Structure formats: structure tokens, C-alpha cells
Amino acid sequence: MRSKVYVSSFFILCALAPLRENSLWSIFSWCSDRFLCLTSKTLLFLIPAFPLAAVLITAAGGRRGLRQWCWLPTVAAIAMSFLASVLLLFQVQGQIDQAAARWH
């Protein structure tokens, strides 16, 4: 199972690598630096916290509260966790670029 996760993460990183040279990468990096103001520690906390919150919401809502919408907190949490992961990826890449610029 772990090897599948590592392989899929590698392919995602390889797919995003050409974006570094693209203006889309710089626009997203600029927006995430200016408007989101989420530190990497905060993002590392939020990535597992979103699914955990979904579990608690689904358990508290139960069958009567959420009815046919019981899947919605889980799907929303997965989407928000993915977004936080992508933001963390961009932040780490930006930090690597800044460190590389200092050395050259």
C-alpha cells in the first residue's frame, strides 16, 4: 500500500514540476504567500484535521441529522485536505527555491 502512495506522489510531483517555469506557478505562489498566510505548521495540522472533523461531524449528525447527505462532510474534508496538501507543496517548493537562490 505504501509503495502505491509513494509512486502516485512521485507522479504528481513530476506532473507539477513543469509548472515551476510557468507563470501559473508564480501567480499561485504569489497568491498563496500574500492572501492565505498559512504557515507550513498550520497546513501540516490541517491536512489530517479535516478528515477527523468530518468523522466527528458524521458521527454527531448520525442517520437522522444528515440522512442522505452523510457523505458530504467526508467529501468536503477530502477536498480541503487535498487543497491544504497542494498549498503545502507550493510553500515547500518556494522555500527550496529561496534557499537555492541564496546559495548561487
What gyration radius follows from the Cα positions, in whole Å? 17 Å
Helical amount:
over 70%
Number of strands: 0
Q: How does the overall form come out from the CA principal axes?
A: rod-shaped
Total discrete domains: 1
Could you characterize the architecture of this molecule?
The chain is mainly alpha-helical. The chain has one domain. Helices cover 85% and strands 0% of the residues. The chain has four helices and no strands. α3 (40-66) packs antiparallel against α4. It is rod-shaped, with a radius of gyration of 17 Å. The model has no long low-confidence stretch (mean pLDDT 78).
Summarize this structure as a short list of keywords or feature phrases.
104 residues, 85% helix
Which helices and strands occur, and which strands form pairs?
Layout: H1 2-16, H2 23-36, H3 40-66, H4 72-103
Please sum up the structure shown:
This protein is mainly α and 104 residues long.
